[in-house]
Predict the structure.
Amino acid sequence: MVAAVIPQNLVVRREKRNHACSALLTAGEESEAIPENIYLNKDMISFRIKTEMKMLEKEMSVLQIVIYGNPTLTKKAEEIKNIDKIIMELAQDMVKTMHTAPGLGLAAPQVNVSKRLITIDTSIGEDSQSLIILANPELISQDGEIALEEGCLSVPNIQEKVARPFRVLVKGTDLEGKEKIIEAEGLLARIFCHEIDHINGKLFFDRLSPLKRNLIKKKLKKLAQDNKI
Ligand code: NI
């Protein structure tokens, strides 16, 4: 990686978050020293700054959420090989889309992009520390089971009880290209499972009995005919 020169008038503030949206850049203020323990090395700083500058260059967009019936929702999404500009922008737009909906989680196939990228925020934009953006997320272990009502932005007007693991261990790549392992339980574990299902082409009602699944599909067809979804 080529190290970038840090502009003198750029102040980097680090919040207690561990994803690439975390640093706030403010141009034109007096420079502050960057604490040693915050940034690991110079390459990391340059990468962060380049990343954050790109983010500032582009206004975040609210993308259209596709609904049941769109073929992208039912196919296995592609692995992300590089966290490039396109992925960074997609992630930003997904966060904005998720917060606007509002939703607790979003997977790229829901915005008609067949890539293995998910965003999660249980605070719906209230607490920046709870934002998670992961590429290529996968469940590496799970335990317990709990059935709770679940819905989906791509399956409007339908909520059903779905059994999910109580605790999961998820592996994925953050926007800095670093591998992350996240332990989650309860609601967060449920959202991870729901979003990982999305990138595998599964919707929450695919986890129900064939009888229930068919009833839901009929209901969705009826809603679509009546132009209610
Ligand atoms: Ni969903």
The helical segments are 42-57, 85-100, 187-199, 210-225. The pocket of nickel (II) ion is lined by residues 152-154, 194, 198 (CB under 6 Å). The CA atoms of residues 6 and 46 lie 7 Å apart.
